[in-house]
Design goal:
With 347 residues, the protein is of the alpha/beta class. It has 2 domains: 4-171 and 287-314 and 332-342, Periplasmic binding protein-like II (D-Maltodextrin-Binding Protein, domain 2); 175-274, D-Maltodextrin-Binding Protein, domain 2 (3-Layer(aba) Sandwich). The protein is built from 15 helices and 10 strands. The longest helix has 17 residues, at 28-44.
Length: 347
């Protein structure tokens, strides 16, 4: 039986951090704050998560990649679980290839992490296509096709900021609605379009307040799937929770469907099933390693070290890895190293 109290405690740690699917357009105040943070960080050094970074012998598709002996590469990340796990993967393969790795992970907030890379302090960090397009580049609407969204971000960031977006991973860390696996079978729902087939009484939702009211959130989503808030989904069918409480509330049956982030570790831990966004309503947030062009030009083999990793990172894989940290209490470094070994990238 799942210990939902453990999940609730883990949720506190996860939801205090910024998440790629949560952000709207950057406000001027946020940018100014980020610049102030960067000024102070520049004086005393970026705060890092630090810790031991293991090295091993490169194997599989990485075995024949030219070494990076003599290279010094700084690796950054934002301050939430997924970012830390991804960054540790990169650190381990770079160090295993002979590079000297500087750990600049755990930077507080997207704006600060972005400014650290633009300022040249961070050589590589993982980023999300939707975050860059909608937040950093202040574009008014997402591009629904994942590949087209990636290409647009890749080309714009290279031209304007000399940043190189390497191959995107399949994992898409965006909004979603989930139900228990048992409920999915009982109600016969797999896709968001299946909601329209349900009786009104079964259309019950646990939501975060922001998602319930934002312009790309719950009510526009209902409209995209042919449902009207207030009639097809009565107001009494919607319950508002803090983000960290939604997962366990959904697992306990407080609502049939709960708002989730699609690679959150609590999804698998609580035996939840995410409904497919078959009309492609939500923005896509595919994860990519983003490098300063200067580094890629000097060490072109860096792409060959990281692109094979990205290709293996599906939603299911990332959900499982995040859960090992947030639910089981493992460190991001251990989770990253174990995964690299299990996939045959190191030995």
């Amino acid at each position: 039986m799942i210990n939902t109290k453990l999940i609730d405690r883990a949720a506190t740690r996860t939801d205090q951090s910024e998440h790629p699917g949560r952000r709207g357009p950057v406000r001027i105040g946020a940018v100014l704050l980020a610049l102030l943070i960067m000024a102070s960080l520049g004086a005393c050094g970026l705060g890092t998560s630090g810790g031991y970074v293991p090295s091993a012998r490169l194997a599989g598709p990485l075995a024949d990649v030219p070494r990076l002996d003599g290279a010094h590469i700084s690796v950054g990340s934002k301050n939430f679980t997924e970012q830390l796990v991804l960054a540790k993967m990169v650190e381990i393969v770079l160090k295993s290839a002979g590079a000297s790795v500087e750990d600049l992970t755990n930077i507080p907030g997207s704006a600060s992490a972005r400014q650290a890379q633009l300022a040249g302090q961070v050589d590589v960090e993982w980023e999300y296509t939707g975050t860059a397009w909608l937040t950093y580049m202040a574009q008014p609407k997402p591009i629904r096709d994942p590949h087209e969204q990636y290409v647009a971000v890749r080309d714009k960031d290279l031209k304007e900021n000399q940043l190189v977006w390497t191959d995107p991973s399949p994992m898409n860390d965006t909004y979603g609605l989930a139900t228990t696996e048992a409920n999915a079978k009982k109600l016969n729902v797999k896709n968001l379009s299946d909601l329209k087939k349900l009786p009104i009484k079964e259309r019950t939702f646990c939501l975060e307040d922001e998602f319930a009211s934002r312009s790309d959130g719950f009510q526009p989503m209902l409209k995209a799937y042919g449902l009207k808030y207030g009639s097809d989904v009565p107001k009494k069918n919607v319950k508002i929770f803090d983000a960290g409480a939604i997962y366990s509330a959904t697992a306990k049956g407080v609502c049939n469907f709960g708002e989730v982030y699609t690679t959150d570790g609590r999804i698998s831990a609580l035996n939840l099933s995410v409904l497919a966004d078959d009309n492609r309503f939500f923005p896509v947030y595919n994860g990519c390693a983003v490098w300063r062009k200067e580094v890629v030009d000097k060490y072109p083999q860096t792409r060959k070290l990281v692109d094979p990793l990205a290709a293996k990172l599906t939603d299911k894989t990332m959900t499982r890895l995040n859960g090992k940290v947030d639910v089981e209490g493992q460190t991001p470094t251990k989770v990253a190293e174990d995964w690299l070994r299990s996939e045959g990238f190191i030995r």
